[in-house]
Write a structure and sequence with these properties.
This protein is of the alpha/beta class. The chain is 53% helix and 13% strand. It binds a DNA duplex through helix 4, helix 20, helix 29 and helix 30.
Amino acid sequence: MNQQPGSQRAPKQQLNPAQRDAVRYVDGPLLVLAGAGSGKTSVITRKIQYLVRECEMPARQVTAVTFTNKAAREMRARARALLGDDAKGLQVSTFHQLGLKILQRELPLAGRKSGFSILDDQDSTAILKDLLLRDGDIASTLLDICRNQISHWKSHAVSPASLQGKADSVQEARIAEVYARYERALASYNAVDFDDLIAIPVRILAEHEEVLKRWQSRIRYLLVDEYQDTNVCQYMLVQQLVGERSGLCVVGDDDQSIYAWRGANPENLKQLAKDFKGLKVIKLEQNYRSTNRILQSANALIANNDHLFEKKLWSEKGQGDAIVVQQLPDEEAETEYIGDEILHRKIGSNLQFRDFAVLVRGNHQTRLLELKLQAKQIPYQVTGGTSFFARNEIKDVMAYLRVLANPDDDAAFLRIVNVPRRKIGVSTLEALGDYSKSRECSLYGAIGEMGLAQTLSEQAHKRLSSLDGWFQNLRRVVDNGEPMRALQEMLDDIDYRGWLVQNSSSTAVGERRYENVNFLLESIRNELQKQNQAAQGNTNSFEIDAESPLEAVLNKLMLRDMLEQQAEEEADNKVQVMTLHASKGLEFPHVFIIGFEEQLLPHRNSIEGDTIDEERRLAYVGITRAQQHLTLTMARTRKQFGDQQRCAPSRFLEELPVEALQRKGFGDKMDAASNEATGRATLDNLRALLE
DNA sequence: AATCCTGGAGTTTTT
DNA sequence: CTCCAGGATT
């Protein structure tokens, strides 16, 4: 097993008193306020161990929920390391995986059929766009407003029906109407979106007492990580599952709330005390991760925000190195500097590539960095992001898989119907679309209908029918238990490789893109095998899933879990590159945060939208990832939209304590001054910290 | 009616 | 870079 940077630290043998209290308190609902680096994952995993070993609770009655796939994997691995065979049946998943599980078991109540599709953001946007287009409205701003508003309603468990006649404005009434149609569309496509994975289970549990009882009896103890990231709907799910009982432990830190933009409601931390009588609150304030200069800077920065709870982080790790603040002429020089620094430090000390992380605000910032790291032959790994799934070749193959598993998935059908070219163009699809709307069925479903032949030209109808026949054959192969053969046959039939080569700028590029497809196929093959083994070793009928193996794989793919895991297993010893958001929960000896500038961090949209506090928390999360060494870099100019623009250092820089910093490359007096200050400030800092 | 080509515009964060 | 629209071409 490869060690991940986040798990390099061996599980602590000794817990401090607060941690021990948190592990052992099981008599009622518990809130653990865990500052950055205070060992919260240890507390959660040790608590699971305590529940199973000391309280003799069967592992299958314990469920732990987190937000990201990465966090779930880490927690699962650490719980298994502690419990060994006793971990059997333990459920560790993301909120969305848990929701998916509930949805799958209660399919009829969800109004979906087996094989339903999970739509990603792009798919739902495309559907909304189509709905708006049919209204004759194409303003793209309305599309954005619509999507955000609908997502907001869904994450607050607001149904279209409950909005009837309650709109505050004409536009809101309009969006509510689109929302209703959107929901109907999803149902008819046998699809759900990401928000539905939480919203539908909540609705089912609210409306069906017996189902609620069943799930409550299945989960006797629920642990929730990163609680500040829950939205209203997710909190409702937690409340439903826990019910009147006391088996709940949530862990959170309001200073690390960085998902408000997608509906996270850190107030849920406060709400907990109102909803759960006798809630016990334990604070973890000792930081085991960072040196004091880093911690002091993080504390100073976050002091500029309001807090739900006050806490003071401290550490026994000593002063440590000064935080390097490096300004460079442009973004090119910035990445050059990062690459050189990594190489220098690696040679200068006993460091591995995996000891370094480069954190960025936006995914696009990784591009230049990747080029530079490649040029310097530094092995790196970009985690998270959408890069792989954003590739057209991957989207195509995924869409084929989805149509195979769920013919009614219009979003996927539209993507592949004419890729490669089948001479099925817009006018044919328009006619098919009109017909399907009138018969209230999916596009694919309309192909088989009798009346369609009259509305289409004979040629067009023939092309659609032959596509249908082809899919039916493939589906037979899948049902025969040979999904991999079906996939290979599918891609061979359409000569997807040839099509890629032809449609790429060069043969070499085309071949590279087909390599991506092969990687996807290989991953699917592995996962199918894994499932096969699991199914054979599984005698617990409670856990057997109704869905087919291919559907299970597809779901895992849509939740972005599977490939991440594979990449992680291969990321042996590489520099970690990721967004600040993706870095939460991880730690690295050496951390670089690049683009520490106004407009970028805080991001220009946040400056306009007046959500600086959340940006500050984002910077806080980034800073607190560093164990020993932190470097903030910024460019004086940066190419944006074609021309060079001047960039100012982030306002957050001024909020950091000067004596902890070592400024370089600013070309002003502060450079030398701060260096001097750093040298003589050590004693002062020690004195200040002791107070 | 389908496909190919060109130019223009816009980049936050994620399950 | 990558998505889109719209116009020219087959």
